[in-house]
Design brief:
- By secondary structure, this protein is an alpha+beta fold.
- The protein has 2 domains: about 100 residues, Rieske [2Fe-2S] iron-sulphur domain (Rieske Iron-sulfur Protein), CATH 2.102.10; about 200 residues, Naphthalene 1,2-dioxygenase Alpha Subunit, Chain A, domain 1, CATH 3.90.380.
- It is built from 8 helices and 17 strands.
- The strands form 3 sheets. A 7-stranded antiparallel sheet has the order 1-10-9-4-3-2-5. The chain has a 7-stranded antiparallel sheet with strand order 11-17-16-15-14-13-12, sandwiched between helices.
- The longest helix is centred in the last third of the chain and has 29 residues.
- The two termini are about 25 Å apart.
- Bound molecules: FE2/S2 (inorganic) cluster (FES) and fe (ii) ion (FE2).
Length: about 400
């Protein structure tokens, strides 16, 4: 039982871990929501950064967002700025976005195309593979050799078209090892890698990052909250199926009644069969990668803590080639603008709720709480979080 006289922000790490462990070990039938202290304790926030964000694979976008050699993007993971660059040979590489001289922030822009990267400080210049190629006036230093200096590289993997980077120097498992069961059991039939990116945005909301994970991993709120958007797919809550427990992901799915229109496969989609032609899959690749996958588009979000009560949610939409082929080139920009408006409405519908979760859970005095049967993914996420955070030394 939490001590109801201690403000949530002051709850010590050991108490949060014990609470998490207790919730994680309850059977789902009697499971409770994620402990409020896990979203408010300042000490736990630092612990979570170290045990989750400094260790785990974090999605930074889609591989097709790097169309040519030199295409690059910067992104933040746990306050570490990273630089991802398409290589001459075609692969992608990730680096810490800090110069190898005195560690100045190297690339300031969010994305672009470059043949080389020059530090704004003393003009050390790097090739796309991170190798130092020029260091002005360093011939004044005896024995200095540019070939001995390079950017610090990070592990990167592409899975089903998504790009994941980890700050861990020796990741315990590959993304493929973690997510391949999700591919073989559920999402592989969609061939997400062929979906093409049509938009990418970033939002900042006033809530803990886990409040958005909580919200996205349950569709119980959809008929109530998303009247102007997702509720129009008319999927009865009774038809939702939650996937079995897995250490690295959670998902639920439901088929909409309509074989045509939004949410259904295009007639030229020959990848999906039967009810999968109108199936929606919502999954979370733990810790923070959320995907709504449909036959005619996918929507992904990568959530990052910006502070204990603020998050950055980078999101994008990608659509399969047969859908794109149907949009006349002159209408494409209008089509994207309309889609963006639709997603903006859906995000606004969620924002108020996610921020309400943060505000409500600030109180140290709360009722017991419980979970609906289709909130099973929340319990799975809590178990994952408990495992990650409790396993740390
Ligand atoms: S810090 Fe980058 S060149 Fe000096
Ligand atoms: Fe929602």
């Amino acid at each position: 039982m939490p001590n109801e006289t201690v403000p949530q922000a002051d709850v010590p790490v050991a108490v949060v871990l014990a609470e998490l462990d207790r919730v994680a070990h309850q059977p789902f039938e009697s499971a409770r929501p994620i402990p409020a202290s896990a979203n408010h304790s300042e000490a736990f926030f630092a612990h979570e950064r170290r045990t989750v964000f400094m260790q785990e694979w974090i999605c930074i976008g889609r591989a097709d967002e790097f169309p040519v050699a030199g295409s690059y993007m910067t992104h933040e993971i746990a306050d570490v700025s990273i630089l991802v660059v398409r290589q001459e040979g075609g692969g992608l590489r990730a680096f810490v976005n800090a110069c190898a001289h005195r560690f100045a922030h190297l690339v300031a822009s969010e994305n672009g195309t470059a043949k080389k990267f020059t530090c704004p400080y003393h003009a050390w210049t790097y090739a796309c593979d991170g190798q130092l190629v020029r260091a002005p006036y360093m011939e004044m230093k005896d024995g200095f050799d540019v070939s001995q200096h390079k950017l610090r590289s990070l592990h990167l993997e592409v899975w089903e078209g998504f790009v994941y980077v980890t700050l861990a120097q020796e990741p315990k498992r590959t993304v493929h090892e973690r997510l391949d069961k999700l591919r073989t059991d559920v999402v592989g039939r969609f061939d997400m890698a062929c979906y093409k990116t049509v938009m990418r945005e970033t939002m900042v909301w006033d809530a803990n990052w886990k409040n958005l994970i909580e919200n996205f991993t349950e569709s119980y709120h959809v008929p109530i909250a998303h009247g102007k958007t997702f509720a129009q797919h008319n999927k009865p809550l009774e038809t939702y199926v939650c996937g079995d427990e897995n250490d690295w992901f959670g998902y639920h799915r439901a088929a909409q009644p309509s074989d045509t229109g939004s949410g259904a496969a295009h007639p030229n989609n020959n990848r999906l069969e039967g009810e999968w032609r109108r199936m929606m899959v919502d999954y979370c690749a733990f810790p923070n990668h959320l995907v709504t996958l449909m036959p005619d588009y996918l929507w992904w979000i990568s959530v990052q803590p910006k502070g204990i009560g603020q998050m950055t949610a980078t999101w994008g939409v990608a659509v399969p080639p047969e859908v794109l082929a149907d949009i006349p080139e002159v209408e494409f920009n209008d089509w994207v603008a309309d889609f963006r408006k639709y997603m903006d409405v859906a995000n606004d519908e969620d924002k108020a709720l996610v921020e309400a979760l943060w505000r409500g859970t600030k109180s140290p005095i709360l009722p017991v709480g419980t979970l609906h049967p289709i909130e099973r993914n929340l319990w799975q996420f809590t178990r994952y979080l408990s495992r990650m955070c409790n396993a740390a030394d």
